[in-house]
Amino acid sequence: MQQLANIFIDGVSYGMVLFVIAVGLSVTMGLMRFVNLAHGAFAMTGGYIAAWLVRDHGFGYASGVLVALLATAALGALLELVVLRRLYRRSELEQVLFTIGLSFLFVATANLLAGPQVQLLPLPPALSGSVDLGVRTLPAHRMLVLGCGIAVLLLSIHVMARSRFGVWLRATVDNTSAASALGIPVQLVYVLTFAAGAALAALGGILGAELMPLEPYYPIKYLVLVLVVVAVGGLGSIPGSFAAALVLGTVETTSKYLASEYGSLFFFAAVALLLAWRPQGLLRARG
Amino acid sequence: MSIQLRRAARALATFAATALAVSFANAQAVKVGVIGPFSGPFAHYGTLFKAGAEAYVASQGGKLAGQSIEFIWRDEGGPNPANTKTLAQELIVNDKVDYLAGFVFTPNAFAVAPLIQESKTPTVIFNAATSDITTKSEYYVRTSYTLWQVTVPIAQHAATKGIRKVVTAVTDYAPGVDAETAFKAEFSKQGGQVVESIRMPIKTTDFAPFAQRIKASGAQAAYVFLPGGPPNLGFIKAYNENGLKAAGVEFLGTAETDEFDLQKFGDAAIGLQTAFHYSAAHDSDANRNFVDALAKQNKEAVANYASVGAWDGMAVIHKMIEATAGKRDGAKAIAAAKMLAWESPRGPVKIDSATRHIVQNVYLRTVEKGPGGMLINKEVQNFGPQPDHGLVKN
Predict the structure, then answer these.
(1) What residues of B are in contact with residue A3 (Cβ under 8 Å)?
(2) A245, A200 Cβ separation under 8 angstroms
(3) Number of Cβ pairs closer than 8 Å across A and B?
(4) Minimum mean pLDDT among A258-272, B14-28, B49-63, B370-384: which range?
(5) Which domain holds residue A109?
(6) In what helix (H) or strand (E) does residue B224 lie, and over which residues does it extend?
(7) CB-based contact A137 B216, cutoff 8 Å
(8) Contact by Cβ (8 Å): A99, A25
């Protein structure tokens, strides 16, 4: 019974971390139809900037994270304007090759600027302890991830369904020329969406830093994991990524508790089965 | 002679003359080929090898036994035996090295055994820690450690402390399984019981489930083996956050609190016990000498088991050069190496004449805050000189 509770609690909390890291990629890949394999690089950048500000420049945790998100969003916007915009019309293979190359560039730059060691992101005292849930303790940091994950889910659903920007985005993705003809600033929509995707990636990198330590090889190391969550969830569907992350997170955690000698076998078996059952993803992306 | 033949003959003559001149110019330097990872995720080992080896030569005044040393560095990258064999072959045949050194990964070290045996090239292993390696050729000498050598003392220590039940949690790859086997064998011999053997997949990022399993096993202590880098950080965090420290489950490790990663763990690491052969905080003049020389050679280099492995490896090469008066004589060099005993930065050491592996003190250390607020591995007990228990058993 205790083990069941453990599996549930740890599974959900691991799934939440996966969701937060993957949601940004679901946005860029699904909504913008742009194969952005440099997603992990933005996550790493956000984490590195936050770590640098909080650790070396005395920023508070909240303010450091906020500045890191804005900085990464700005970097994303800049890259989109200057470079990535030219790739929208190119084939998927070219997008893949380019963004992987970009990832390697980020890897080498991180190594050059900060060395090969893991970057520590110090947590404020409020988040460093453990919370007593009655049945067991859970690190306070995991509660924050849980909260943020749910907040991101609700906020993104609201933006997509209810806000003007959501309308613009849906129109632009459906039919760019028609949207442009109707006066929607499509270029602006693209830049802002990409910047939002980068900011979400940065949030994922920062919140996930406890589990996926920030080091130069981060973008390459966790790329497959993030792609898997997005693919299983359905490209462009944020609720889909949420569901996929929870399911896969629970499967992975269960296998760690019960049969860890098999490594990630069950995780990938689950991925294969889910994709075979629903190749378009768990929840249909809008459009 | 035809024109082509004449041209070819002239080219050959020039080449031969140049080669002779070059080889004559370099005839004096003793060549040491060092194979280590200089790129990729393990590149820090290469940096540490280079710093340790060059610091040693600098500390001896730039020459060893009156001979100048020429280092030839080659990149093994990662575990890649085929590539390493090619590199070693080129070093032995083309560059004509007198000594080979380095090797972080066991499969790479195994791969060169037939080459060094045939060419009679003394090879000093700076790191690769599997016991069997030195048995594959008479020309291996090792100045690092083996898993059995450091695991047997901690198993004995746990038994002496009265711990009856231990759970092992190791990363699921060859050295991890080796460590688990070593601990289980010795702890059972001492009358203890290993209640559960947990294998953690290499790619694990979330260690919370394993921490919970350790708690649920009812063991009084956990013997842990992790590969170094991010998994160590993840595990130690999970160990604290899931209340294992608070519940009184003791942490028993070996290389997990290595100086390269140590500062990152922060206060979470305080109190962790490990058994290992080298601590940068070892209180001796030889060690202070080493740490200073290393810092002078490369400010960024950390004094840890990798850099001291290279330092002591060069000390062995020094003695081999002395014994052979700088000439290439593999058998004589190895015979001299087998008799060596000296004061290393780790403590008094000697080379075992049967196994050619270093016999050294293994210490029990606890992580503490040292002077200046940095974390150190403070030696609290000396288990005495330990041979390679892995070979003694087999």
Answers:
(1) 216
(2) no
(3) 82
(4) B14-28
(5) 2-117+141-277
(6) strand B221-225
(7) no
(8) no
Burial of A151 (0-12, 13-18, 19+ CB in 10 A): exposed
A252 in a domain, yes or no?
yes
A253, B206: Cβ pair inside 8 Å? yes
Contact across the interface for A14 and B210, Cβ inside 8 Å: no
Is residue A285 in some structural domain?
no
> Which pLDDT value is given to residue A287?
42
Contacts of B169 in chain A (CB under 8 A): none
- Residue B249 has what DSSP assignment? P
Closest approach of B218 to chain A, Cα-based (Å): 14
Contacts of A190 (CB under 8 A, 6+ apart): A32, A80, A85, A88, A172
Does any domain span residue A136?
A: no
Give the other-Cβ count within 10 Å of A154's Cβ. 11
Nearest residue in A to B237, CA atom: A210
Residue-wise pLDDT for B192-210, tens only, equals 999 999 999 988 888 999 9
> Is residue A243, in this structure, part of any structural domain at all?
yes
Of B199, B205, B264, the CB nearest to A261: B199
Token pair belonging to B286: 């030889």
Cα separation, A103 vs A97, whole angstroms? 10
Q: Which residue has the tokens 């205790």?
A: A2
Look at chain A and report how many structural domains it folds into.
Answer: 1
Which of B41, B201, B237 is opposite residue A260, by nearest beta carbon? B201
Cβ–Cβ below 8 Å for B241 and A257:
no
Facing residue for B172 by CB, picked from A7, A17, A261 = A261
Q: For A31-61, how does the pLDDT look when each residue is reduced to its tens digit (9 = 90+)?
A: 778 888 999 999 999 999 999 999 889 889 9
Determine whether the interchain pair A117/B264 forms a contact, defined as Cβ–Cβ distance below 8 Å: yes
Q: How many Å lie between the alpha carbon of A118 and the closest alpha carbon of chain B?
A: 7
- pLDDT category, B394, cuts 50, 70, 90? very low
ipTM, two decimals, is 0.76
In this prediction, residue A26 carries a pLDDT of 87
CA-CA-CA-CA torsion sign (A226, A232, A236, A240): negative
List of chain A residues whose C-beta atoms are within 8 Å of the C-beta of residue B264: 117-118, 120
Share of chain B above pLDDT 70, in %: 96
Contacts of A252 in chain B (CB under 8 A): 206
Cβ distance A213 to B201 less than 8 Å, yes or no, reads no
User: A interface toward B at CB cutoff 8 Å?
Assistant: 2-3, 6-7, 10, 13-14, 17, 115-118, 120, 122, 130, 136-137, 139, 141, 210-213, 215, 217, 252-253, 256-257, 260-261, 263-264
Parts of chain A with a pLDDT under 70: 285-287
Instruction: State the residue for tokens 């916007």.
Output: A77
CA gap A101, A135 in Å, rounded: 47
Q: State pTM to two decimals.
A: 0.81
| All domains of chain B in start order, with CATH | 12-145+283-356 (3.40.50.2300), 148-276+362-393 (3.40.50.2300)
CA distance A140 to chain B (A): 9
The CATH number that applies at residue A231 is 1.10.3470
